[in-house]
Amino acid sequence: MIVRRLSNDLYIFYSFVFLLDVIHLFWNNSVLYIIIGVLGMIMTGISFPRSDRVFKILGVILLAAGIFFFFSGEATFSDIPLYFAGNISLLFLLSMLPWMNSVVKAGRYNKLLQSLLGSNAKGLGGLYVRSEITMVSLAAFLNLSSATISQDLLKEQLKKVNTKVRNSFILMATLRGYSLALLWSPLEILLATSIFITGASYLEVLPWMLLIAVLGISIDSLIGKIIFNKREIEESLSLDKGSGQSKRKLMQFIMALVLFLSFVVFLGNVVQLDFLFAVTIAIFPFAFLWAMLVNRKKSFLQIGLPTWKWKTNHLSNFIVLLLSLSFLTQTLNASPYLKYLQDPIVALEGNPLLIMLFIQAAFLVMTLLGVHPIATMGIFGGVSELLIGAFPPATLTILLAACAIATVPSAPYGLIVTITSVALRMNPYQIVLRNLPYSLLLGFLGIGVALLTLLIY
Asked: Which residues cross the membrane (predicted)?
């Protein structure tokens, strides 16, 4: 009973650690940073038994590698707490994301996706284009809920279509559209992490990420239209009665997205806050004001508070991954073995294209082996000084973010693929094989745009 009570109140402890990290951002005190690191170690210890098996295995591997690098270097035991403090700010961002999702639910914007996808369509080719564009437009705020809602609706709408064709359509349109939204969303942890590593400006990176998204939508929509164009829908849902209301909600949603991006850019460029911190602290006040403007303040708090508590209490997987990764990255930087990771990049010095292809291959291979892209991102963060020497910060951010996000539809143990495999009753690796060509394509688009930025920067 006591253990269960403590588990339900973990959000208080975690929030206290996040508060200390915010204080440290404005008051750079070494003792405070050590305290944060010690609390980070406690968080890791609490979270290990509560995390999923995959993350336990990954955490053990990361910690074991970190211990090996620790003893191979000249670091002392007093340095260990410092090594667990590095990624606390990423955890703070993750804990705040439920507030944005809660205002979307409170404002009933999750039903907007249903309305946009539910109108009549004559053929699968046209529906594929509409489905993917809708996913890209709304997944930036709706996140995973956009995928689950659209998959349920499309399953119903395509129930008379051949099962194999239907499943292929759904997993392509929803997963690919979802990943294209992540490329530019300030709420996406992979984009935020890449900016965190390189120190680039979000405003500087945003146009290029949007360019990758537009190219990805255009090419994949054309491919989907060609693949599915000959197939007609025998029966479709008709939700046109609320089309006027849907248009109003869509305009509200787009306006809110533009205002949120503007708010983040203001905090980063005018107030001069770190991008990651700017996004994190912008979420709750913006979501609260949004809820007030649409007269949903009460619903927002009723949905948001329990959701935030539950999500923060269940950060265990990310705590194990990110804090173990922080330990590994810091010990690696202090280890003589760092040069073995640097050697392939040094050997490719003067060949930016080969370095980019190496980075893309590393993300894809590690993802297929079950390693989360954040972990791979952290490994490259360990050699960030060398990479920044080879590329401007904006170019490196575009490269890391695009190559990491490109693997999302092809990650066999990723959350979105797992949700889709359950919804469609498919083996995750069947989904991976169907989306692997797309992951390669999106990665190449990212590399192409990154090469283009080299001509400018």
From this structure: 12-42, 54-71, 83-104, 180-202, 208-228, 249-269, 275-294, 315-333, 353-375, 396-424, 436-456
